[in-house]
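Reviewers of the previous submission asked for a worked example of the structure-prediction workflow described in the proposal, so we include one complete record here. The input consisted solely of the amino acid sequence. No template or homolog information was supplied to the procedure at any stage.
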Amino acid sequence: MSETSETGPETPDEAQEADAAEQRAALVDGEDRDEWPEQVPDDVDEADAAEQKRVVEIDEEDYR
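From that input alone, the workflow returned the following structure tokens.
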């Protein structure tokens, strides 16, 4: 079993400090890890179940 650090995944030595901090930061303020649903059917992919639970905010200033 491998050990994990408290700061998250390691970043390459050549990564700039600001880039590494941005990648570790939450995408949205107040974003918390969602709890796993109590019931997930056996035939459902775990990644799909987690992705479908995420809420995507609409950015009105985003150019389309």
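Residues 12 and 33 are 25 Å apart (CA to CA). We consider this example representative of the routine output the project will generate in years two and three.
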